[in-house]
């Protein structure tokens, strides 16, 4: 005589589906123009927090968290209720990337920059800037070669472990390279400016004016050198025009 009490006469168990695999990226997949600020909150419009993502050969670009298996359930008659296993995910490998031996990490095969286009992950040894180095780009510090199709504006800096090639002019800017610096148009600073050009290789340009230039290799100027401080451990050559 037991009243108002629940008594189990049959019991089942809900199946638990597995979780799908996840890909975690160690870089920004979307380009954001976020300017850096100092401790006082002052904005530095020349420095962006993620304008270029440098990476070294062997560094991890992305990591996969494997999918998990589902846990079967049981109905009230004791029959197995199947659970869904999690779905696997795959890396979209582009240029100069490779998978780790266990297939759980995506690694860079070279020094360069990470580019994410249509879910495809690439690492490029050359950083191409389609326009000028200005407020839309910010300062550049890159582990490979930098190719600027415009000019390097006054007050900005470009530093590279590889060569630096500039189609336009270099204004009163700081440009440093562990390789060579090639400037197709010319280098124009200010009489009291802070601009400086420094290369561990050669420097080649059309003309130099009001600028400090240092090179471990040759400094070759197609036209003239005016009101500048030039230092080379090899030679300084000005040829043609008023050279």
Describe the 3D structure.
The protein is mainly beta. 0% of the residues lie in helices and 40% in strands. A seven-stranded parallel beta sheet has the order 12-14-16-19-22-25-28, with no helix packed on it. It is elongated, with a radius of gyration of 29 Å. The chain starts with 21 loop residues before the first strand and ends in a 5-residue tail after the last strand. The model has no long low-confidence stretch (mean pLDDT 88).
Please outline the helices and strands.
Elements: E1 22-25, E2 35-37, E3 43-48, E4 54-55, E5 60-65, E6 73-74, E7 80-81, E8 97-99, E9 105-108, E10 112-117, E11 120-124, E12 126-129, E13 140-142, E14 145-148, E15 157-160, E16 164-166, E17 169-170, E18 174-177, E19 181-183, E20 186-188, E21 196-199, E22 203-205, E23 208-209, E24 212-215, E25 219-221, E26 225-226, E27 229-232, E28 236-238
Parallel strand pairs: 12-14, 13-15, 14-16, 15-18, 16-19, 17-20, 18-21, 19-22, 20-23, 21-24, 22-25, 23-26, 24-27, 25-28
Antiparallel strand pairs: 1-5, 2-3, 4-10, 5-9, 6-7, 8-9, 10-11
- How much of the polypeptide forms β-strand, as a percent range? 35-45%
Total helices: the number is 0
Q: What is the residue-mean pLDDT, rounded to a whole number? A: 88
Biggest sheet: strand arrangement: 12-14-16-19-22-25-28
Helix percent reads under 10%
- Radius of gyration (Å): 29 Å
């Amino acid at each position: 005589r037991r009243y108002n009490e629940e008594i189990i006469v049959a019991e089942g168990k809900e199946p638990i589906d597995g979780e799908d695999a996840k890909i975690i990226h160690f870089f920004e997949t979307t380009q954001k123009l976020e300017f850096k600020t100092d401790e006082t909150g002052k904005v530095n419009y020349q420095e962006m927090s993620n304008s270029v993502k440098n990476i070294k050969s062997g560094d991890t670009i992305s990591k996969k968290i494997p999918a998990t298996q589902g846990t079967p359930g049981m109905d009230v008659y004791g029959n197995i209720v199947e659970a869904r296993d999690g779905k696997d995910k795959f890396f979209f490998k582009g240029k100069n990337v490779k998978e780790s031996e266990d297939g759980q990490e995506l690694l860079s095969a070279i020094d360069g920059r990470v580019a994410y286009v249509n879910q495809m992950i690439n690492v490029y040894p050359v950083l191409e800037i389609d326009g000028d180095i200005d407020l839309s780009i910010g300062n550049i510090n890159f582990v490979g070669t930098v190719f600027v199709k415009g000019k390097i504006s006054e007050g900005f800096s470009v530093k590279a472990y590889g060569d630096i090639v500039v189609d336009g002019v270099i204004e009163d800017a700081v440009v440093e390279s562990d390789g060579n610096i090639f400037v197709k148009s010319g280098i124009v600073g200010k009489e009291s400016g802070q601009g400086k050009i420094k290369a561990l290789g050669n420097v080649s340009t059309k003309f130099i004016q009001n600028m400090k230039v240092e090179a471990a290799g040759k400094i070759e100027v197609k036209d003239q050198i005016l009101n500048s401080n030039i230092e080379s451990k090899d030679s300084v050559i000005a040829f043609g025009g008023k050279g």
